[in-house]
Description:
Blueprint: H1 5-14, H2 18-22, E1 32-35, E2 42-49, E3 53-60, E4 70-78, H3 84-96, E5 102-104, E6 108-109, E7 116-124, E8 133-142, E9 146-156, H4 168-179, E10 182-185
Antiparallel strand pairs: 1-10, 2-3, 3-4, 4-9, 5-7, 6-7, 7-8, 8-9
Amino acid sequence: MPVKPSVRRAVLLATGMAALLMTGAAPVRARERLLVPQIPGWVVTESYNDPIAQITELVPAGETSDTWTRRLTVQAFTGSPMSAADFLKGLVPHTADVCEGFQAGPVVEAPVPGADGGRRTISCGKYRGDGRGSFTLFYALRGHSALFVLARAWRGAPFQPDTPPVNATELDAWNRLFDGVRLCDTNDPARPCPQGPQP
């Protein structure tokens, strides 16, 4: 099944690293699941799932995959050998190449039980593809059999990268959402997965 254009865009624009993530990847039955708190009023606009990549895109109700101003992209790359730190470091050259005006925040360690992790902000003052600016907080987690990547993004008018368009209150809310993310593991009694069907 081919990746829908908007889902492909979510991967390529949110991470700029799809090819690297897939290098050496092989289908592996994931024993881990990423548990992400729900955002009231947000809806799934795109979802893609195959043995190697699982991608879900959510936006506020009333926005779409094309018109969004805020977006959460949740991605799992099963079998990818990349570490969370390498992913976050690799964002810089891949994103800087497609932006007019670029700035990256420091990598901040943010592990969860069973996984190393880190966060980093990326400012793209003006994306060369559509002329809009974007500001994204990435959260990467290195699990046993997959690399999990979450991207919480703002998109709008071009801006100067040293003056991000997202204020401290909103950025705090983004970080609080990521603070609630957990990895459960069907093979680890210390990190049990919820029973029953999952959304």
